[in-house]
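Task: complex structure prediction.
Instruction: return structure tokens for all chains below.
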Amino acid sequence: MIKISAKNVDVFYGKKQALFNINLDIEENQVTALIGPSGCGKSTFLRCLNRMNDVIDICKVQGEIVINDFNINDKGCDVVRLREKIGMVFQKPNPFPKTLYENISYGPTIHGMAQSKQEMDEIVETSLKKAALWEEVKDRLHEPGTGLSGGQQQRLCIARAISVQPEVILMDEPCSALDPIATAQIEELIDELKKEHTIIIVTHSMAQAARVSQNTGFFHLGELIEHGSTDKIFKNPDNTKTQDYITGRFG
Amino acid sequence: MNKNKEKLLAKRYSSEKRFQFLGKSAIFMALLFLAIFIFKIFSTGYTAFQKTWLIVPVNFDAETMYLDANPSKEDLEDADYFEISLQSMFNLDKNANEKQQNELKKMVSYFFEREIKQELINDPSLLGKTKDVYITASDDLDQVFKGNYPRDLPENQRRVTDYQLKIFDQLVEQGKVESKFNLSFFTYPDSREAELAGIASSFMGSIFSILVCLAIAFPVAVLAAIYLEEFAPKNRFTDFIEVNINNLAAVPSIVFGLLGLGILLAVFQLPRSTPLVGGITLSLMTLPTIIIACRASLKAVPPSIREAALAMGASRMQTTMHHTVPLSMPGTLSGTIIGLAQALGETAPLILIGMVAFVNTIPGSPMDPAASLPVQIYIWAESAERGFVEKVSACIMVLLGFLIVMNLFAQIIRHKFEKKWS
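Output:
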């Protein structure tokens, strides 16, 4: 089933065009990896999906991005509601400089998802459990989140993202600042999370894309060169550029 | 080739050594100047914290004061103390002629009558008895006792006469002169008489001015900074505003004084010489300082925190109020305190709005006339009497102490509460 459908998406930074006519469908409850060399526009595309590009003054997005039969680039779209449904995990772990508990409870609080302290405790616990962090931190929920290790911080950010039960989770190179062990933990987690969430992950590591994703899109110089099932892209790509990138001839 | 390389290396080392030496000597010079400055102020000013008292026997004679044997409290308040006060001074030398009696009277402050009155009101049983009373010595004798007075000048160039010195020396010999902690320096308002002049009115004036300044400048500056940094679109117009705020910070303070004079006093008819007007004028000066500090500390909050909050579905307002502003507060507050410390030391604008007036009452509100500490320094430094020299230094010490405490506070806030970003 198609969860997100991007049609003719163009993105401009001022006069410079960063994305050219992107058409991409994202399958529900699967992991879609976006790969490509630096500066190819994969992160820009990812940020279109929860309208994070709004933050950048000079950035202009054109085209349709339809999620649940609703074009999020419509004027009537409420970004606050949109971002509640579409969570995001960033390249560098960015927990709030507050306690672990406050980090998780922030989203549910501003969206009014818990009626009582008890409900909030439950949300915090399930979110941390889903992010495979509960066992490590259950005794220090009221210590600052910035005191954790890098991998733990990133899992905390994932727990924070899933605390509001988003339908889609966007991940922007979530493992690029982590060591191999922490990376393996996050990848395992991604596999688990796709049961309940649709996941789109931008990654520099082709090995990672091959390990965690079912679908892959290859970006180059602002264009979506090729997309399809990960198997096909890695074993038998249609486009020679994809072939070259996969085999490491450039990028 | 190899030799050339070695030469180059030696050159590099020696130039680094030279640079380090210059840097160290610059620091040494700065510390030396500071030490000289502080030593000068302390060595001149510390005597101001001591005050000289003459111990004079006073005969509380009921008849002279027109009191009956059992006077009520009101009677004691209304009694005539002038005669007994005068008599007790004249009694220091029973053979004095009229001119010498006049000189005897001038050996103490003109408060002597009040001091004698207070003694009796505190203890009404003294009526009809004689008791030694501590009376504030005149500022000149105070200086004589502290050894700051050139006694060897010819008499006609001195304010203290030979006769006064003779009597004073006798009193010293009898142990009737004492030096005690000068509490009145902190509790009395300004006075034309150095021995009675205190910093109470200017201290309170400074406090009120700073409070008014804080109450106006802080909210306005923080709101302006938050709007400019977090909400305003970045375009030519906001660039123009930013440039002008920076310019405002460089405007000489006397210009703000003229503004206060021309607008606050002339147009709005606010009361002259008051901390209210002083505070508003100072707030104009402090405003750009706080805006710049607040914007800098907002800028220092990493964008990743904003993105994290926005991606959680927080609105821009929530992102700002829940995350960015609390994180920027330590920097903003320490910037504010430093801005206030600058305002505290400001003299020129206050002189223009009339806070240089001679005020011998202690202000109870920002609407009462008052001086301020730096202006008080200016007023006293202008005075001719010897007694004011040490007062100037003492007042500088108080002001410096005040500033050091404020700056220390700013440092503590910054180091204790500021988040470190890896």
